[in-house]
Design brief:
Elements: H1 2-34, H2 39-51, H3 54-79, H4 87-104, H5 110-139, H6 143-166, H7 185-190, H8 199-216, H9 218-228, H10 230-235, H11 240-267, H12 278-289, H13 294-310, H14 314-318, H15 323-337, H16 339-364
Helix pairs in contact: 1-15, 2-13, 3-8, 3-11, 3-12, 3-13, 4-5, 4-6, 4-11, 4-12, 5-6, 5-11, 8-9, 9-11, 12-13
């Protein structure tokens, strides 16, 4: 019976994101029809075209890599009851610090340089997020407001460092040396020279470690307990302050690691930013779609990677503006956010079935 209940719980949890995705695509199709576009051609261009080329599959997975880290970062803070809107700034802090370290020590052995660069990015992202965690824990300030302010602080500091410290041209840094290269020759050959790199495999390992930490460790249990009820957790002897700071520290660490992987693996440098990196806010969307489950977040990241890469095919192959892909993504997130509506109708259907089954069983007797 317990296995049956767990199976039903898993299926009901899966229905919400799948229904949200379906409704998002339907909404996008209706909007395209309203503007005179063919949604079938648009979706065929967006999705099918990606899977017809190993290069674009590799690029989709490369985008999914960074989104997995930032999505897990947001989910961890959310589990603790906090809305870490500063994921983008923390990812940017990890990106610039990892590139800076790689440029400063180009002669270190490859495995040492890549590892240390990623660790530096992770630590800087964690410390940046801890500012909001510390202020929330000891002064009761809103982590939303503080992390928004820190986003733009990180953006301006990064651009200042690029223009005045890290480069001579003022627009971008030099590319990191070969010893900081995260690519594999066989992986590049397999995906026709896409930028897919070792970060993808690190992301898979982190997904597993995240699940183990949150479900099998005391620290993970305390973080979830504080998120459910901080007062009850404090009454049970848990330190709410410690867990607030810890959850924000780990959240920022994941975001910083995502930024470091994105910077070293995708670009190999950093350039002046016109705005906050997309991997931050898209990571929040990925976490919401994955409902905080690490496996769900991983597959949501792949979906977003496919949609983002596939959007580039829509103008040429279907005559549809690539902004439509962003509308579809936004619609999916809307329906995830409004999942109580979906759950309401699912509960109604389930209740109706129970009544029908009870009536039929009563009739048999």
């Amino acid at each position: 019976m317990q296995l049956i209940r767990q199976h039903k719980s898993f299926l009901s949890g899966l229905i919400v994101p799948l229904t949200s995705i379906l409704f998002g695509f339907i909404f996008g199709a209706i909007l395209m029809l309203a503007f005179g576009y063919n949604p079938i051609l648009a979706y065929q261009a967006m999705i099918v075209s990606v899977f017809q080329s190993p290069y674009f599959i590799g690029e989709a997975l490369r985008q999914a890599t960074a989104l997995t880290f930032t999505g897990l970062g947001f989910a961890l803070a959310f589990q603790a009851g906090f809305f870490n809107i500063g994921i983008a700034g923390q990812a940017l802090a990890g990106w610039v610090s990892a590139v800076w370290f790689a440029l400063a020590f180009p002669d270190l052995p490859r495995i040492v340089l890549v590892t240390l660069s990623l660790i530096i990015g992770l630590i800087i992202g964690a410390l940046w997020a801890s500012i909001a965690g510390f202020l929330r824990a000891y002064f009761g300030t809103s982590e939303v407001i503080v992390s928004i302010m820190l986003n733009y602080t990180a953006l301006q500091i990064t651009n200042y460092l690029i223009r005045n410290v890290l480069s001579e041209s003022g627009n971008s840094t030099e590319r990191v040396g070969e010893n900081a290269n995260m690519g594999f020759a066989w992986l590049s050959a397999l995906t026709q020279n896409s930028r897919l790199n070792v970060g993808f495999f690190i992301a898979i390992i982190v997904v597993i470690l995240y699940w183990v930490f949150m479900t099998k460790t005391t620290a993970g249990f305390e973080i979830r307990a504080v998120g459910l009820n901080a007062s009850a957790s404090r009454y049970a002897g848990m330190s709410a302050e410690k867990n607030i700071i810890l959850s924000m520290f780990l959240s920022g660490a994941l975001a910083g690691l995502g930024g470091a992987v994105h910077g070293l693996g995708t670009f190999g440098n950093i350039f002046t930013q016109g705005g906050l990196p997309d991997i931050g806010f898209n990571g929040i969307a990925v976490a919401l779609l994955g409902l905080g489950n690490p496996i769900g977040i991983f597959f949501s990241s792949i979906l977003f990677g496919v949609l983002n890469i596939g959007a580039g095919f829509m103008p040429n192959q279907a005559g549809v503006p690539d902004e439509m892909a962003n509308i579809v993504i936004a619609a999916i997130i809307f329906f995830v956010g409004a999942n109580y509506i979906i759950r309401y109708f699912l509960d109604k259907i389930a209740a109706k079935k129970e009544v029908t089954n009870s009536a039929s069983q009563g009739g048999d007797v």
